[in-house]
Inverse folding.
């Protein structure tokens, strides 16, 4: 795992496409370029980390810049990913694969207006038994298998194996 997150070095001449941070302000960031629409992850780790499912957008690591990081701490949640949170207020902010080139950003930590919409629910086979899924998004059960929430009972690779809303095929089955 990287000790410090690499990202945007110098973009003083460029306006960020979005900004965000934690509840207390001890972690603030800027995002540059397009953000992936929101994916709700229902895996067991997200349920425990967020207290519910996790809603994440995603950007390329090179398009992410910390403005303030004094409260930032990382937790190695597995041998291939880590989660960034604020050590002061506890806000869960980031999810990052150790071998990836992108970083998932908690959608609730992005300053409004975001212009984002929720498009997918992943790992729904692990979802909590105390809530129902919202209609209108695609469901990813696990390992890239999917079905549309409204109607279709057929299972198979989403869109004939095409990438999901800016996610690679590998990302579509990853737990956030």
């Amino acid at each position: 795992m990287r000790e410090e997150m690499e990202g945007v070095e110098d973009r003083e001449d460029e306006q960020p496409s979005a900004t965000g941070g934690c509840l207390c302000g001890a972690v603030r960031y800027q995002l540059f370029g397009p953000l992936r629409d929101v994916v709700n992850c229902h895996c067991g780790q997200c349920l425990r980390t967020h207290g519910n499912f996790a809603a994440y957008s995603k950007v390329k690591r090179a398009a992410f810049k910390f403005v303030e990081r004094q409260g930032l701490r990382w937790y190695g949640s597995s041998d291939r990913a880590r989660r960034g949170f604020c050590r002061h207020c506890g806000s869960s902010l980031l999810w990052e694969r150790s071998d990836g080139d992108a970083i998932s950003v908690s959608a609730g930590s992005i300053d409004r207006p975001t212009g984002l919409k929720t498009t997918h629910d992943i790992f729904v086979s692990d979802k909590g038994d105390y809530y129902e899924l919202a209609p209108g998004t695609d469901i990813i059960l696990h390992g890239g298998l999917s079905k549309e929430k409204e109607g279709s009972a057929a299972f198979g690779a989403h869109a004939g194996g095409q990438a999901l809303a800016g996610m690679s095929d590998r990302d579509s089955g990853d737990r956030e």
Summary: Residues 11 and 67 are 12 Å apart (CA to CA). The domain at 18-172 is CATH 2.170.150.70 (Metal Binding Protein, Guanine Nucleotide Exchange Factor; Chain A).
